[in-house]
Amino acid sequence: MTAGSPGPDGDDRGREDHEDREPVEEPGREPAGDEPLTARSALGLRAVLSGVALVAAAAAAIVFGIIANRDGSGTAWGAAVVCVVVAAIAATDLAVIARRARGR
To answer: Average pLDDT, whole number, for the chain?
Structure first.
């Protein structure tokens, strides 16, 4: 059975009706339904995850820095740099979340 053809019993359940489809939202256009009233943001969860990442990455950077300073290992310095970059990204994300939360 192909899309758009009647089913084996002659009914039209498999047929696609283009008239029944919802209109496609255009960018910059006000939504037609109740989306703004029921939409929920995940800023709280995002803030918690970024806070945990910031603390964990900063702690790991300190530990890897101490290990690298003690052993002189290039691998430990690389890991410390990666952790500092992750901490910076988490801090930036927290700043963006705070700005968006003030905009509410």
So the answer is: 79
